[in-house]
Q: What sequence folds into this?
């Protein structure tokens, strides 16, 4: 299976490099499977086959997935779109890393542009502010939001399987969590809820009552892929360097830590299993934070005062 994945990757890359327009078009929309994704595939298969080996009613005696060897895959850390990187991208299209995030200024520019899209902006605002996963935002029911308390309970998510979707619980115990909203986000969600209720009354029987917090104009839920497509369209229209929708989640985590939030609080609200993962991945994404730490150390060497807090970028 992994050999076939590699063959498919090679074919896609060759088609992309072809001078034949039809051949190049045949690879459009096809994704190269990365090494990190291969590791996740192997882990899933290994877990499933381990269960199969333990079942007496299944003729499985060996977990073949445990014998598959893949190259080591170090964790990919986010990289921020600094001014130099943006200039290089505008010059030749270079994207310097596999996982890119926007600066706070770039995120604000996106949200400002996204305000034009009334049925999507509240969802993008929530993801950018609190780092929800795409499926968590798409599947969020109003019944799990408590705007008076300023809290949202993450208990369900929408998972995309090819094109079909399934509503299920988060993939880990840590994923089932409660997040606390800031006042700005509460205001955005309250305004959105009023607008959505007004549209529901106008639609009458044409409205499909799904109970979801974020819906389309007829009350039906968003397909995860459609949300990602709209995110890319809006970010391109805003003239911003490319990131994925999941990059908004990375940006929310990075901004929270840069603003001085406790790493344990940030880890819990993101639904990470360990604080170490959060700290190791996001602690120094923004260069300004690392620069402030370096200057604080230099100040001590010069005999200066101990800084109380590094400046927020």
A:
């Amino acid at each position: 299976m992994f050999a076939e994945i590699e063959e498919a990757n090679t074919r896609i890359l060759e088609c992309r490099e072809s001078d034949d327009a039809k051949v190049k078009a045949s690879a459009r929309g096809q994704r190269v499977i990365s090494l990190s994704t291969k590791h996740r595939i192997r882990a899933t298969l290994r877990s499933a086959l381990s269960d199969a080996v333990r079942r007496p009613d299944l003729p499985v005696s060996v977990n073949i997935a445990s014998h598959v060897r893949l190259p080591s895959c170090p964790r990919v850390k986010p990289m921020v779109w600094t001014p130099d990187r943006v200039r290089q991208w505008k010059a030749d299209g270079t994207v310097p890393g596999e996982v890119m995030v926007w600066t706070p200024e770039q995120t604000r520019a996106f949200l400002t542009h996204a305000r034009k899209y009334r049925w999507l902006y509240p969802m993008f605002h929530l993801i950018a502010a609190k780092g929800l996963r795409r499926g968590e935002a798409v599947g969020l029911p109003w019944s799990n939001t408590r705007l008076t308390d300023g809290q949202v309970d993450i208990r369900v998510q929408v998972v995309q399987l090819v094109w079909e979707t399934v509503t299920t619980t988060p993939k880990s115990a840590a994923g089932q969590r409660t997040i606390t909203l800031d006042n700005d986000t509460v205001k955005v969600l309250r305004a959105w809820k009023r607008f959505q209720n007004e549209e529901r009354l106008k639609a009458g029987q044409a409205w499909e009552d799904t109970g979801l917090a974020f819906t389309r104009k007829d009350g039906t839920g968003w397909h995860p892929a459609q949300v990602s497509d709209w995110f890319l369209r809006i970010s391109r229209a805003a003239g911003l360097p490319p990131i994925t929708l999941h990059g908004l989640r990375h940006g929310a985590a990075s901004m929270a830590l840069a603003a001085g939030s406790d790493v344990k609080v940030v880890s819990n609200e993101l639904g990470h299993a360990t604080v170490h993962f959060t700290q190791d991945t996001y602690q120094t994404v923004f260069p300004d934070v690392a620069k402030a730490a370096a200057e604080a150390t230099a100040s001590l060497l010069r005999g200066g005062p101990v800084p109380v807090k590094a400046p927020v970028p």
